[in-house]
Structure formats: structure tokens, C-alpha cells
Amino acid sequence: MKKCEPCEPHEGKIMRTISLFLANLFITTALLAQAKPADAPHDMEHMQHGGFMQGGMHHAIAKGVKLEQKIDGHTIVVRIGPMNLPAHTSHMKMPQPPDLEWQVPIDGWLLAYSPKLVDANGTAVPGRVLHHSAFWNENRADFLCPNKEEHIFGAGGELTNWAEVPGYGYRVQMGDKIRVETMVHNPTDSSYDNVYLEVTIPYQSAADGAKTKSVYPTWMDVKSCGNSGYDLPAGNSEQTGTVIVKYSGVLLGVGGHMHDYAKQLTLLDATRKETVATLDAKVDDHGELLSMPTVLFLDQGGYKFAAGDVLKISATYDNRSGKLLRDGAMGIVVGYFVPVDDSAMDALRRNPASHHMAGMSHDQ
């Protein structure tokens, strides 16, 4: 084959794709935080079973919403609906889908996630009506906080695609139970009936023999392994927490999850007394969160963690509202981790706790 000087090297393509993948993850995380007014009670606090999306809110149950899946080649489409969304209806007043369960139909790796909203005819529906959706693996514990389940995918109204990273994927086993939380609203002037959320997930089968490395979602929280939401006092404030890394490996990159009036997130390896990343929040003149940056460690092969390293996370805010905001803050550094010894992560597998799926976080 002829050499092409302008062609991008294969390694460069992989690094660029990893950068896009991580950036999409962090953009999705940041946008999920912006779906409410700054002074409203926050609705993304961790639930007891490990989530953080629904918090303690209660809603009427939307009747008849089901989860179905379709497999086409090496692609799975998870479909949730139908949902009827009247115009000008907030998420507090909208009947919400029950938490649903998806049983993984393959043994292998999930490679990417592409969400979209359609009606019964397949016509696109605006992403604005999706407040959020989150997928949690009930068969795996979070590797930093084993009291929580593993958060593997999330989407908000921006419907960001999580791009495929060549050579990497999220390991699943056939029959794994994935809890799917979905919340909808409709701030638009139009009503939408029979709406479906469809998430397209390409996969790599373990039987194919491909050399796929497993990545692990990494949530490093100022509230350590407790509930993520906390009250935000007026003025300047700082919240710090620590987590212990139990496995050696590398962090591919990090981004941040904060709320309005955010200033900065920092991640420190306290064991080595090294700053891993400093993430300065971008806010507007009113303190509304606009974006959080992404820091990648690809040029050094990932940021290396050793088993036993203590990580310190700090979040600073400047709450200019002049009042205490209940559950108004979070501080989470979000990334993907690749362990040195993937077999050691087998210890994270567990039998899922029994949840009353149809009524979780909602009123009957």
C-alpha cells in the first residue's frame, strides 16, 4: 500500500476518537446538571440503590411504558415507550416512566451509545423533551465506591452520542441486569404523543476473539461514597472528599460535574501529593453554569494510579444568590479507568439487589 504523507497515523486516529468519546461523556454529564433553575430543589441526588438521577422526588407513574430490544447484526437497539408529553409540562407535573430493566443479550463489550427520540412513525422528536436517562449495571459495583452500582450511560436533552473508541469497550455478560431510569418533560409549545427513547448500542462479542480492553466508569465525588447532592451556602464555599483507588491502572482523562455558581474542581493524588487535574468552571454573569473543561492524559499513556492511592476531590463555589440553596451543589470528577489487571475487577461482580422496579422513585 502506498504511503500517504497527509494521512493521519492510526495512533492519532485512536487518540482523537478517545478524546471525542471522553469529551462527549463530560459534555453529557455537565448538561444533565443544567436542566433545572439554580434555586429549585435539585433532582439528581444519589438514590439508596446507587443512582443519582431521581433523588427523593415522587411522580405519578406513566402507564404502559415498556422496554424492548432489537438486535441487528452487531448492534442492539433499546427502545423505551410510548410516552405522551403534553406541551408546557414540567418534569414535576409530568407522569414519569417507571424504572425499567434491560437484560443484556450478549457476552462481550458495549462499544458506544447513540440516543434519539422518535414517535410511533419513526419521526424525530426534539431532544429537549428528555430531561435525562441513565443506565445502571446492577450486576457490578462501582470500583471506587462498591456500595453503589456502576453507572454506564447517561443522556440529557442534548442527546449526545458516545463515540466508539477503537480497542476499548464496557464489559458485560449475558443476562446482566441494567436498570434504566428515564425522566421526561416538555417545555415546548407542541404536544408529542407516543414518544420513544431509542438507544443504539454497537457491541463486540467475546466469541469473536477481538482484543478489546475494558474501561470502567470513574466517579470521584466530593461527598466520597455518599449522596452526591449537598446544600450550597451563600457566598464562597469549599467541599472536599476522598476516595481510595483499590486497583492499579491508568485514567484516560477527566471532566467535571458541577452546578450553577461553580468555580473550580480539583483532583489531587494525596498519596503522591500531585495535582491530577484542575477544572475551572465557566459561568455566565448570573452564575449559571455554561461548561466544564476536559483534561486528557493520552500523551503520557494515561495518568497512572497505584492501588492504595488516596484521591482528594475539592469543589469551590461562589453562590451569589444571597441564600442557602438546598441540594444546590455537586462536585464530581468524571472519567474512564483502564486497570493493569482486568481480572482483578471480577471482584466487582455481584448478584443484583431486589428492587421494586415499577414504583422506584415514583408514586403509584
Could you walk me through the main structural features you see in this protein, from its secondary elements to its overall organization?
By secondary structure, this protein is mainly β. The protein has 2 domains: 41-213, Jelly Rolls, CATH 2.60.120; 216-348, Sandwich (Jelly Rolls). It has 1 helix and 24 strands. It has one helix at 10-32, and strands at 66-72, 75-85, 100-103, 108-110, 114-118, 130-141, 149-155, 168-172, 177-184, 192-205, 213-214, 216-221, 230-232, 235-244, 249-257, 262-269, 274-280, 282-283, 289-291, 295-296, 303-305, 310-319, 325-329, 332-339. Strands 1, 2, 4, 5, 8, 10 and 11 form a 7-stranded mixed sheet that branches. Strands 12, 15, 20, 21 and 24 form a 5-stranded antiparallel sheet that branches. Strands 3-9-6-7 form a 4-stranded antiparallel sheet. The longest helix has 23 residues, at 10-32. It starts with 9 loop residues before the first helix and ends in a 25-residue tail after the last strand.
Average residue pLDDT: 83
Largest sheet at a glance? Answer: 7 strands, mixed
| CATH fold-level topology of the largest domain | Jelly Rolls
Low-confidence stretches: 1-8, 30-56, 356-364
User: How do the helices and strands follow one another from N- to C-terminus?
Assistant: HEEEEEEEEEEEEEEEEEEEEEEEE
Q: Report the helical percentage.
A: under 10%
Task: Specify the CATH architecture of the largest domain.
Answer: Sandwich
Strand content: 35-45%
CATH class of the largest domain: Mainly Beta
- Total helical elements: 1
Structural class: mainly beta
Radius of gyration: 20 Å
Strand runs, count = 24
